[in-house]
What does this fold into?
Amino acid sequence: MSCLQIIKIIVEIGFYVVGISVAIWGFHSWRRQLRGKTEYGVARAVLTGAYRFRDAMRQTQAPFMSGAERSGYERKDDETDKQAEVASQHYAYSKRFESVIQKQQKLYGAMIDAEALFGKDAREAIESLFKVGRLLGFAIEIYFKALYQKENTSTDFFRKQFNIIYGTGALDNSSLPSGYVDDGGFSNKFNEALEYIEAYFKKYVENRNYFKNTIDKINKPIQKIIFASRKQIQRIKSRICP
It folds into this structure.
């Protein structure tokens, strides 16, 4: 076997080794890239859903209510004017809250994906927002029913429900009477739940250079492998064919 043939075999073996190494590295890098893309998509869906849920909550709490919102209520024959007024408000706020339920249902799907990908902590972060949302629904039901039945709604308990419904608990005004803006911690719980979701999922969305970094991670090791292989082939060549 001539020196040229030996060199040819060595070169072919070298390229096979390089090719296999590149293929293995590329496969692992592709898997990392695919997972990163999946994480980005799921995290973005959670954040988008959480913000839509937040907006639906705020729209439900909006103090201004048009007559059109209450027009769908059908007054009962035995109701007083006051009861009819309360009942129509109850109807309107309940219709508003339906938007919150719809946004929760959509976010629920993203929560299942997040739990499958990130684990139980991701689910708990989203459920904390749902729990606060249910407090608003509870407040709407119990406050207007009590008002309709002419119960005493001036107690601290019902004042808190009032503040939850109308969003007055989010006010920061020390000049207001004591208890006027007390919503039992509703506003703080809601903000904390939303901030927790942002802290958990935003890191997967804000890494806009993810794909570029992945490509760089693939290219650099490949270049090192090729360079090292060429040097090794040159050493073998110099020894066999001095």
